[in-house]
Amino acid sequence: MSTEFKAVLMMPTKTILREIAMPEMKRRSIAMTYALCMRSAAAGEAVDWAAINKAIMDRWSVSGLAWIKTQAASGKCFGGAA
């Protein structure tokens, strides 16, 4: 018998926006939280993607947003160096 564990965030938008505003947070950490936001959205939590994506672009860039999305969608953000 296997047990599967799935993590989701409560208040995902507030959580990731707070992290994006923290200067010590790096793109990889934000990608991890973005991945959890994706899981949370799939589980029915409300996620304000427009606000999140704007905050990421304001801090990094459009290419930074693309990198974060790619890392989050692939799960690479949870592994070794990319």
Characterize the structure shown.
- This protein has a domain at 12-17 and 28-78.
- Helix content is 60%, strand content 0%.
- The protein contains four helices and no strands.
- The chain is globular and about 40 Å long.
- It starts with 11 loop residues before the first helix and ends in an 8-residue tail after the last helix.
- The mean pLDDT is 92.
Low-confidence stretches: none
Sheet-strand content, in percent, reads: under 5%
How many DSSP E strands?
A: 0
Structural class: mainly alpha
Radius of gyration over C-alpha positions, nearest whole angstrom = 13 Å
Helix-strand blueprint:
Blueprint: H1 12-20, H2 27-42, H3 49-59, H4 62-74
Helix pairs in contact: 1-2, 1-3, 2-4
Short description:
With about 80 residues, the chain is an all-alpha fold.
Question: What labels describe this entry?
Answer:
mainly alpha; 4 helices; 82 residues
